[in-house]
Amino acid sequence: MALRRASREIQLPMPVWDGATRLFHWLLAAAVVVAYGSAWYGMTALHRGSGLFIMALLLFRLAWGFVGSDTARFDRFLGNPLAALRRLAARTPDTQVGHTPACGWMTVFFLGLLAALASSGLIANPAVHALASKILLGAIALHLLAILAYAVVKRHDLVRPMIIGRKRLPAATPAPRMANPLFALAVLIAAGAVAWIVAAML
Q1: Nearby residues of 172 by Cβ (< 8 Å), 6 or more positions away
Q2: 83 lies in which domain range?
Q3: C-alpha dist (Å) from residue 70 to 103, 104, 148, 161, 200
Q4: Measured between alpha carbons, how far is 103 from 147 in angstroms, rounded to an integer?
Q5: In this predicted model, what pLDDT tens digit does every residue of 72-127 receive, in sequence order?
Q6: pTM of the shown model
Q7: In a domain, 9, yes or no
Q8: Closest Cα to residue 142, out of 106, 97, 94?
Q9: Domain count of the chain?
Q10: Would 8 be classed as within a structural domain?
Q11: Which of 43, 65, 104, 129 supports an S-S bond with 99, CB 3.0-4.6 Å?
Q12: Rounded to an integer, what distance in angstroms lies between the CA atom of residue 172 and that of residue 140?
């Protein structure tokens, strides 16, 4: 009944993800593919470069989680983990402006795992690097299954908003604050500079 009532509400397209967050997401996905591919084919220079690029992206996302748009901020989507699990099991209408609670915790897990992977590669810790790469493959598979489950069971389309930045939400939903794109570019440049300096020191 909740889904039917939600479908009868007036819904309007609303911005939910800023361009910086979406660009980070897809660049990170591409960089991870390049990292695995270059490792498989023994392309050492490309593998190290992709790891450095991933580190720069992670530094950007860490900063953006504190100074970015409302939907990108950690304090807006991280809550009680038990409550996140309970909501994950509920078949509720899709009225979430940004990350769902469960997706928020998965995001933090991915960021931490990728940080361990990139840093262990840069400091040449093969054991940690190999373990983190195996865990990441499993996490990616779980992530894709979760996207499919949300689409089929809960009727939540998680992919389209991350591409176009907008989704249809009840008209009374307050619009999130979006940060200035030029500010995002400045944060990204600073993150890249820090990553380059750290890599040069190792």
Answers
A1: none
A2: 15-201
A3: 16, 13, 26, 15, 34
A4: 10
A5: 999 888 877 777 677 766 677 778 888 878 888 899 999 999 999 999 988 888 99
A6: 0.89
A7: no
A8: 106
A9: 1
A10: no
A11: 104
A12: 35
